[in-house]
Amino acid sequence: MSTINAIRGEQRMLLSSISWETYVSLINDTQSAGKLLTYDRGDLEIMSPMMPHETAKRLLARMIDRFTEINQIEVQSSSSTTFRRADIQRGFEADESYYVQNAPAIRGKEQIDLTIDPPPDIVIEIEMSRSAINKLALFASMGVPEVWRYNNSRLRIERLDGQNYAQTDTSVSLPGFPLKIAENILSRRASENETQLIREFVRSMSK
Predict the structure, then answer these.
(1) Which of 81, 54, 64, 65 is closest to 152 using CA atoms?
(2) Rounded CA gap, 79 and 84, in Å?
(3) Among the four 27, 79, 158, 207, which has the fewest Cβ within 10 Å?
C-alpha cells in the first residue's frame, strides 16, 4: 500500500493485489461515498478529493452545461458513474462524464453495461496530483473517445486514435468549446466570484 499526501487538493491511496470481488464490494460500500475508485487488474486507487479539486471540477462542469445549453447540444450527464468491465478487470469513476453523440443510446438506462453499451463520449479528469494508475491506458481499453484533463494550470483534450490518445486543440464531441477561455477562467477560480466567472464565459461565446 502506498499513499500520496493531499498536497494540492487530493489524497490518493494505492492498494495492490485486490480482487475484482473486493473492488465491487467497495463500490457498493456506503463508506466509500465521496471517494473515486479506479481499478486496473488488481491495483486499486482510492482518491479523496478536497476543496480545490471539487471547485475546479464543478466550475468546468458548469461551463460545459452553459455551452451545451446555449448551443442546443443534446447531452446526458453521467457524472461520477462507475464504469466497469469484469472481462478486462478494469473500472473507473470519473470526476465528470458526458454522453453527447451517444446520449440517445443510453437515455433511460439505470445501469450501463460496457460490454453492450457505449462508454461516455467525454471523461473529465482533474489531476492535481499524479495517479499511480495509467488512466489513459485504462480509458483506451474501454474505448472512451475523449478525455479532458486539468492539472491546476492547463486544460488539455486527449482524443483516442486507435489504441492511444493524441492531444488536440479542439473537441470533436463538443465542437467549438472555447478551451483557452475555460482554462483562463479555471485559473482564477480561487480569487474571483464563481457566478461572475460563468457570466464572463457566457459573454465570451457571444463575441
Answers:
(1) 54
(2) 15
(3) 207
